[in-house]
Every structure is written in structure tokens, then in C-alpha cells.
């Protein structure tokens, strides 16, 4: 992030498409600037797409030229406007109460939510900082944070996500009055996955979110609300987000369409206080330049609503199938809580101190694949009795057979 603002501004100009440059210039302007290639050289002229419901839509030659060209780092204007409306409709963040210093809510498109997460971490985390996060947590978050040289501090969680009492106990090491004093080591950042968390499948209750948010206010922490499974909540009404409670601009939220539309499309977005989102945008300008224009043009806003309904119905049935098989085969040898969102079941094996060898050796020999729980812990060398099972890809029949094999392995190892 230590970049010249002037150079980044110039880079931003160079990233504009010819159409965008022309729109920002007087009609008499002759532009020899910019570095965009001539769209007439692109090899693709048109494309047609068929949806699952049989409907079709096409990219004509004009739209295809735009889809294959450079675009603004923040995202193409139509998509950004659609996403901002989506966030207002879903979360109604109280941005009118934000202080002038922290700015209003803003948003930028990222190449999946993982890119947004990594750029937010690089922006906010310095070596030696104390960062709070759920235990266990997403292994990709651990992989992004550990190289930054920060101290990762576990906060206990259960089937309802992060436990506020545990967070309060961790924070009791610091005096709220001293958090801004020179040399204070008080955490400035808290990371959580509030819905259908990976790996636990846990979803935070509204009450817990409110308690966690108030503790963040007391200790003046920023919260990263990583919510890739928000659109995979099985029951209505959906739980209010931390963003919807954000009265003083301390929530940075990452969203993803990977689970609803396609993981390969790589579309995510970061929402939060404008000054912070702007710096993420500048980082994008200097690194990836922008998310694929082809992916952004029309795709998300056209496909989102029908796909969302269909995907929720699918994963809800998959979850029910896994619950049925777990009750059938594992009730005497394991413990679990039914997830209300996402695509994962977090299983504690009875009488098994550590699942690493059981899952990575014996289970593979029996042709069943799961993930040992240690992968999701800050210290993966410590024994962990948990495994993560995903209900996203396998059929109900395959899930049932996998749990039958797992039950036999557990009984043999006890």
C-alpha cells in the first residue's frame, strides 16, 4: 500500500476502457492516451448462453467488445450500482450515522471474496498485531494471515458461532481506556464468518452479533464480516448481518457469488467505510487491475435471483440427507449440530483424540474423503477430534455410504 497516489491515479486512467475515457472527455477530445488494445483485434465476436430453465441471452458484437476490454478497478458501473442496491436492500446499513472522518459506505468488485480478504488483511495487519478470530476457522484465512507476522488469538465458538462471553474474556487482558495509548497491544481487528461457517457450519444468532458488535465498539476494533454463505441460509427470515448494525463504520464485509452462481466466475465484493474500500481499490489497480470484465458484464445481475432460489433448495435437501445419514450411522460414535446455512457438517468423533491419521490414512484406504479438523486450527500440530464433511458434491446415496464407512472406522479406532 506504500504507493504514490499520483502513480495510482495515472494507472487508474490507463485502466479505463476507450468508452469510459470518451464518456469523461469533451466531444472534441482526441485521445492518444491509455493502454487499452483495439477491440477490433479481439478474436470473439458474439456468444450465447443457455440457462438451466431453458432461457437464453446473448452477447452481441458491441457488448462482446466491452466484455473483453479493460474496465475500472472498482468494477463496471452498472454492476457496482446493482451491488450497492443489493446491499442496501439486504442490510440497510445505517451509513447516515457514519462520522465524516470514516466516510459513507462504499463497495468494490473483487476476484472472489478471497482476493478481497487478502487485500483487506494486507491493508490492516502489521507484524506483531493481535488479531482475533473464531476457533476453528477457515483455513484460507489462516494461510493469508500467518505470513503477515501477526499474533492470531482464538475466540471460542459453538454451534451458534463466536461466543461473546469468550470474546469478552479474551479482551479483558486490555483496558478499553488504554486501547489508543502508544504501545498498546489491544487487538484492532476481529475476523468472523457469521453464517454457515467453514468448517463448522455455525451461524451466529442476532443477539450474539449485537453483543460482539458492542464489544468491538468498546475496544474500537474493526470487524471483518466474511459471509460467503449468506445467500445459503436455509430458513427465512435471514439473520440480520453485522453490517446492518454498523452505526460507526467498523464493519468491512466480504461477499461472494461463488456458491450461488459459479466458483469459476470469481466474483466477490467488499463493502465498508469508503476510505478503506478506496484503498482496496487502489491495491487492485496495482495488482490485478480489475476482475474479469467478461464475468461482470450482465452476468451477475441477470443470473442472481433465479439461481439463488434454486441453489438454496438444492443445498437444503443435501443438508437434510446428510443429517438423516448421520443419525443413521454416527449417533453412537460422534456428535454434531445441524447447520442452518452453508455446505458443511462439523463432526466430533467420540473416543478419538486426533483425526489426522484416521482421515488421511485409514479413511482414504476405505475410499472415503473428509477433512481432518486440525487444518482449521491456528496450531495444526495439536490433536483435534473433529472432521469436516461437505454435502455439496455427493449424492444422498454416496453420503450414506461414506458415513457407514466412517462409522466402522471410528468403531475400529476406539
Automatic annotation (TrEMBL):
GO terms for biological process: alpha-amino acid metabolic process. Its cofactor is pyridoxal 5'-phosphate. Pfam families: Aminotran_1_2 (PF00155). The keyword Metal-binding does not apply. One of its GO terms (cellular component) is mitochondrial matrix. Residues 1-21 form the signal peptide. It comes from the Eukaryota. One of its GO terms (molecular function) is kynurenine-glyoxylate transaminase activity. Keywords: Aminotransferase, Pyridoxal phosphate, Signal, Transferase. Residues 66-406 form the Aminotransferase class I/classII large domain. The keyword Signal applies. This is Aminoadipate aminotransferase. It comes from Gadus morhua (Atlantic cod).
